[in-house]
Input
Amino acid sequence: MKEQQTITTQMMTVRVSGTGNSKQKALAAALAKVQTAVLQNSSAIILRIEPVDIDVISAYADIFCEKFLFFFLPRKKECYAITVDITVKVSLVAIDEIKFVSRTGSQ
Output
């Protein structure tokens, strides 16, 4: 059987966002959504997703004061939100290009 070139690479950009109570957790939440965003844009089987570039679209820090019973024990709470465009290099298998041969017989 003749071998076929079925593994291809693509460059694509996905926009993801994440929130967290620290800067690291907000960015980690955004990076965790990259795989699902890439899977939604492609119908092929994905072998590898490699980030190439990250562009920050927006980054916000919300800081507010929380008090117990409106007066006691004030403390500052922080919430971070980030939206990024991530350029990824995707290695994928084009399942449509694989030729399957039918065979009959009992096993």
Notes: The mean pLDDT is 87. The radius of gyration is 23 Å. The first strand starts at residue 7 and ends at 20. The beta strands are 7-20, 45-68, 72-93.
